[in-house]
Amino acid sequence: MKFLPDQVVVRLQTGMQTPDLSGTRYRALELLGQGGMGAVWLVQDSILQRPVALKILTAENSSADLAARLMQEAVVLARLEHPGIVPVHDAGTLPDGRTFYCMKLVEGKTLDHYVLKLPLRERLRLFQRIAEPLAFAHSRGIIHRDLKPSNVMVGSFGEVLIMDWGLAKVLNVTGAPSAQVPGAVEESSLTKQVSEQVMDAFGGFSPAKQVSGHEFTRAVKPGASAPENATAHGTILGTPGYMAPEQERGDVNLIDQRTDVFALGSILQYLLQEPPGSQQSDSYSRPLRAICAKSMSAEMSDRYRTVQELAADVGRYLDGMPVSAYRENIFERTARLVSRNRVAVVLVLAYLFMRLLFILFSRH
Amino acid sequence: MSNKIVLGLVLGGVLGILDGLTAWFTPAVRAGIVGIVFGSMFKGLIAGVLIGVFARKVHSLALGIVFGLAVGAFLAWIIAFMQHGYYFQIMLPGAMVGLIVGYATQKYGASGQLQRA
Fold first, then answer.
1. Torsion of CA B3, B8, B14, B15, to 10 degrees
2. In A, which residues are within 8 Å of B22 by CB distance?
3. I need a labelling partner for A7 at 20 to 30 A (CA). Which of A36, A149, A243, A261 fits?
């Protein structure tokens, strides 16, 4: 019996995975990422002469259910026209029958790689930018449900993009900005159909050139073993460490924008940690710790109601203002005011010192 | 944030009064403290308005500080010249007050246009 060499096996595997793009405007260039049920390909759009990313179901998972989920993900993304959310260009079915959607190719680094050498203030400013597209999605009634550093891309020019909306939950299908109080958002009948049909078929990878650092989202059925990328009604969806308690419990009906607030708080906590090997300690200021704690409260009602509120508190911290999550004592308040107005304080002290010297000299 | 001119006026006036009150610690001039306080306040008000107008026209912290210092020192020099002495004791605090007002108007004052908007 003669075995095939590894190189040949790899080539055969690649050949089988390569999508049939004949008769389409796309030409496959490179496999960017592969999950349990789908793949993201770098392709060339032959009409517009530009590279784009194509998210395609793998051949073995081309069921109608999964195809519908992929299409739903494309619909969700298409509804979210925002600079911080990857735009969808096209969607449909390939000649081999597999469903796909085409999106902008994002080149950059995932947040976990990007922030390694950033100072704290820049990390916090970056965090504020992460909150913007998320707030926009919430205003359109869409909850991401799988926020984590590896799902946030920072482009070459510092632009922030939130990736992988495969687990997104739709709360409001009208597309109109929701003015309702968080938690009071009603799911429509279509939404219920969509939201409970979870869209994790692609296992949490993003159409990024850098795919090595990706954690794969787990779908875990309560009380069952945890097959990678499995999907079923009522499953627990998300990434451990970034999942809110209600998400961990599988309380699908409780999930609202505060679920993303929890994940965003976890990202903030991640950003506040000093990189490995850093000389600085991991202890950061009490207001920042309080912001994290409030965002990550087990009780949904104790969290920030919206991501805007969370981002605004971080902004207040950056501006040297008091944050809503932390009640400072008189000494902390004084220290903050002095720190914020350092030059003015130095000038006044210099003036008083000079006056004191004059008084002393005039007496002698 | 208040208007730059108003901020300059208020700060110049208050610092001028405080500056004048310190004359009480100099026994030689204590008798004329009221006149000194009023004169110092008037000097502070003029300096504050000039610095406030400058801050409104020129949005530069460094130039604001330099202008404040120069205006404060010049007005103090006029006072010292009229007093025929105490140049150092009058000009140094006057320049310092101008510097503080120059910094404050640039840093904390809101421009008139913004306020109208």
1. 150
2. 355, 358-359
3. A36
